[in-house]
Structures are given as C-alpha cells and as structure tokens.
Amino acid sequence: MSITRHLRAISVLGLPLIGSNLAQMLLNVTDTVMLGWYGVEALAALVLGSSFFFAVFMLGNGFALAVMGRVSASLGAGDEVQARRDTRMGMWLSILFGLAVLPVFWNAGAILRALGQDPHIAALAQEYLRILGFGLAPALVMMVIRAFLSAQERTAVVLWITLAGVGLNAALNWVLIFGNLGFPELGVRGAALASLSVTCLSLVAQASYAARAPGLRHIALFQRFWRPDWEAFGMVARMGLPVGLTSVAEGSMFQASALMMGWIGTVELAAHGIALQISSITFMVHMGLSNAATVRAGRAHGAREVTLLRDGAMVAVGLSLAFGLVTVALFIFGGRELTWLFLDAANPASARIVEFGTRFLMVAAVFQLFDLMQVMALGLLRGVQDTRVPMWMAGLSYWLIGIPASYCLAFTFGLGGVGLWAGLALGLASAGGMMMVRFWRGPWLRQ
C-alpha cells in the first residue's frame, strides 16, 4: 500500500473512533461543567469520584482492548469463529469483573478518607460512586462490543450512538442535578444517575446493532451466550489482564495526582480536574488513532504482512504527532480561555481556579507529546498481541518514576501543583520512550 492509501485507511477507521472518544469524553465534560455551575464542592467531589471510577474501569477495560487486538488478528487470518469466541468471553470477563468490584465503590468514602481527603468531599464522592458503580459492568460490556465493531471496521455506528448519549446525558443532568421539571435537586447523585442511564441505553443500542446488522448477523454473536468457552476465556484473560494493569498503572498515576492535589487544596483540586479534563479531550484524538492502529496492526499481523504493518504504524504515529504539536500551541496560548469555559464567572472562587488551571495547562502542553508516544506504542503492541512487557514498562514508569517525581517536586521542592504536573510528564516520557523502542525493534517487524 502507498502512504496515501495508508492515510486513507487509517482516517476512514480512525476518524469515527476519534469522534466516538471525543463524544464519550463529552459525557464527562458535561458532568464537569454542570457540576462546576452547581458548586465548587460538588465539582471537587466529581473529580475525586470520577478519578476513582476511571482507575477501576481501566483495569476491566483491558479485556475489551485485548478483544480488539485478538479479533483484528483473527479477521486478518480469516477466522470469524475465533473472533466470536473471543468477543463472547470478553463480555463474560467484563460482567464478572463489574460485579466483583461493587463493594469497592460502596465503601469508597472510607477509602478516600484513609487517603487523606476532606471527609465532606469524600462523602459526596461516595454518594456519586454508590450509584455509578452499578454502571461499571454495562460500561465494560459496551466497550467489548465496541472493540468487536471496531475490529470489523464498523466504527460509524459507535459514533452516532455515543453522540446521542451526549445529548441525553446533558438533558438528564439539567433535570436531575438542578431539580428542574419538578424533579428533586440531587447534585452529584443526579449526575451519577444520568450517567448510569445513558450507559445502559447505549449498551442496548450497540448490542442490537452487533446482533442484527447486515454482514454481522451470520456471526451470531449472542447465540447461546450462556455457554462457557474456557479456552477463549483463558486466552482473553491472559492478554487482557496485562493490558488492564498497564492502563491502571497510568490511570492510578493520575488518580494519585488527584489525591495529592487534594492535600494541597480544594481550589487547586478543582483546577486540576478542569486541566485534566481539557488535556483528556485532546488525548481522545490520540486514543482514537491508537485504536485504529491496533485494528490495522492486528489485521496485518494476522495476515503476516510485515511491510503493511510497518508502513501503517509509521503513518498512524505521524498523524498523532502532527495533532500533538497543534495542541501544544493551543494549551500554551489559550489555556486561560479554555479554563474559563468550565466555570461560572459570577462565582468568587472561579478566578483563583483559572489562575491555577492556566499554569497546569502550560505543563500539560509538554506532556501531551509524551502521552501520545505511549498511547500509540501501546495500540501498536496490542495489535501484535504483545502485552506483558509493556505492563512492566508502565509499572516502572508510572509508579517508580512518575508518582515519586510528582510528590518530590510538589512537596519536597515546594513547587505545588505545577511540580505535581511536571512529575506526570516525567512518567509519561519514560513509558513512551521505552514502548516505542520495543515496538520498532520487535520481531514482528522482521521479514
């Protein structure tokens, strides 16, 4: 394939995935903006609660990411039966995981207090998580189905379903957070109920499409779903657990950053949440390209096309880097304006939040480049089904470099929140460098 054809193939697959990721992020942005209007304490509780939920979600989401790589490789080798087996057992693993961690969400308040968080904010975060925790299993199953559809290069439908969810979530937030249309004013609990409802409805829509769409119906994805397939169960678990732990290593670094920022102050924590939300929005573009790279690399790897794998990887990484340079300029020159979008100008605390948020985005401009390196490398490595070594690289980078560096820069050297964000950048730089080297020197690129 020519470079132009690679660009076209990755764009056709990646743009809907990028749109889906951005739409998914807009669900969280909607919660952040509307609870920011509702009150600073509610916003701080959302930052803690959503960070907590995200850390647990990323561990379970490893099964979906494993399914994407395995199904892509199976389809590249022309084996639809194996694709069906892996997807079903990915859903099994997701359901079991979601049920197993419910007690963690139910007792989140005690966990957050033990980690030094303000008791009142921790109590509000627990109210949020006790509701949203019931949505974890549906959310993970939805991600497995999304991985199956992505491997089939059916990404547009995921985009439209997610966009519909954004609109529904905003409407439900308006009703349930603020108590409009005669409903009770529920604050953070209203945001959790809205998110839970949208997740369940989106799951039904995606599952219906996967079961009935032309070209997919013959796969019979849900036929005799209750029957175990222990061989596929074991293969998906063995690949998915390292993927999940890799994601948790990164996610827990950001969770630890939220906890440490909570030690600094509530205003700083709110600014941290906004800055992280903004950087996460741009990160969704890289995540979409990473998912596209997984599918394209998996298909090339399954078909044993080394040149196709190498050239496709170069194009995907190049596209991600080009967008990363754009976001660097955006964060440096437009950080203040971006932060104000999340706040009510009439709130007296907003000016201080904007001051801190602008500083944090200056540092985020640098770590965006390191973040895209690690997420693109991970996507390519999942496509060639290499997950164990990246797991150890992630643990080293995030837990032995990123978190200690954040703590030392923030507290030992007195740099506060800016130092904390600089430590995050160091952890991402380590992970991105090691993983990129591993992919480009791997045996999958040898003739």
UniProtKB/TrEMBL annotation:
Domain of life: Bacteria
CDD domains in the record: MATE_NorM_like
Record localization: Cell inner membrane
InterPro entries for the chain: MATE_fam (IPR002528), MATE_MdtK (IPR050222), MdtK-like (IPR048279)
Keyword Acyltransferase: no
Keywords in alphabetical order: Antiport, Cell membrane, Ion transport, Membrane, Transmembrane, Transmembrane helix, Transport
Keyword presence, Acetylation: no
Pfam families hit by this protein: MatE (PF01554)
The protein's name: Multidrug-efflux transporter
The species this protein was found in: Thioclava atlantica
